[in-house]
Amino acid sequence: MKFTVLGSGTAVPHPQRSSSGYWLETVNGSLLLDCGASAIHRMAQENLDWANLDAIWISHFHLDHIGGLTPFLFGMKNAPDTQKRRKPLRIFGAKGLKKLLENFDKANDYKLFAQPFPVEIVEVAPLENFEILPETEAVALDTPHTVESLAIRITDENDKTIVYTSDTGFTKEIGTFASDADLLVMECSFFKDKPIEKHLELSEAIYLVRYAKPKRVVLTHFYAKWDTVNFEKEVAKLSPMCEVIEAKDGLRLEIN
Ligand SMILES: [Zn+2]
Ligand SMILES: [Zn+2]
Fold first, then answer.
1. What does pLDDT average to over the chain?
2. Which of 83, 89, 177 is nearest to 138 (CA)?
3. pLDDT tens track for 100-119
4. How far is residue 219's CA from residue 233's CA, in Å, rounded to a whole number?
């Protein structure tokens, strides 16, 4: 699998970090993990084949994670690149996703679902196994962030695993859920003294890394206070026992 960071920031505008979006390319198709407002243009900037994107995962309904989804559907509807497309686009997320998108669509009669290709919305429940791409299994875990927020664990046909926590407060369950992952993509909104309980700060994130024992970790979803922190030095102080990478917009990794 190939992993690309589209946005390593939050909802707050930042000159280098755009809002959440991660592209995952597998032999069986492509998957966008969250779709912040900037993600739709970031896909084009990274030369990713957005017109043939197979599936989208929406972790929760905060606008830095879903705010680009309806503009993306709006753009795809008339894009020359999608007029010959016939394969479906599947959008996965928690219960309530369908109603939210339908309400947005109705708000101005956008007809976002009248595309040249079928758009399928699939609502998943925590701990339910589902196929997010052909031969690619997924399972979600509810997280302490919003009522609907979910982490996801994805396993491809070669048994390579990526776990994406998205936004979450601290719970050991995330560590169990992420155990032995080939890549753990975890939020780390704050360095220390977090002002919001339902996010992680560095010591909690590294605790979960030590608990989960993944092969590699990408920390992401950084607020601006991180800008003055020496990431590598502070991570090293906490002995994570595996490689911990600071997400940056445009970061690319191979999972094999
Ligand atoms: Zn967020
Ligand atoms: Zn959030």
1. 97
2. 177
3. 999 999 999 999 999 999 99
4. 14
- Give me ligand 1 centre to Cα 85, in Å: 31
Helix 69-78 with 97-107: angle, nearest 10 deg: 60
**Contact call for residues 252 and 2 (beta carbons, < 8 A):** yes
Alpha-carbon torsion angle 5, 139, 235, 189, nearest 10: 70
Query: Could you give the CA distance from residue 164 to residue 153 in angstroms, rounded to a whole number?
Result: 7
Going by their DSSP bridges, the two strands 129-133 and 119-124 should be labelled as unpaired
What is the reported pTM?
0.98
Measured CA to CA, the distance from residue 11 to residue 240 in angstroms comes to 28
CA 158 to centroid of ligand 1, rounded, Å: 30
Q: Within a 10 A sphere around the Cβ of 113, how many other Cβ atoms?
A: 14
Q: How far is the CA of 117 from the centre of ligand 2 (A)?
A: 30
Which region holds residue 83: left if phi is over 0, alpha if psi is between -120 and 50, else beta? alpha
Give bridge partners of residue 252 from the DSSP assignment.
Answer: 4
Ligand found nearest the CA of 149: 2
CA 86 to centroid of ligand 1, rounded, Å:
32
**Which residues have CB atoms below 5 A from the ion given as ligand 2?**
62, 167
pLDDT tens-digit series, residues 214-249: 999 999 999 999 999 999 999 999 999 999 999 999
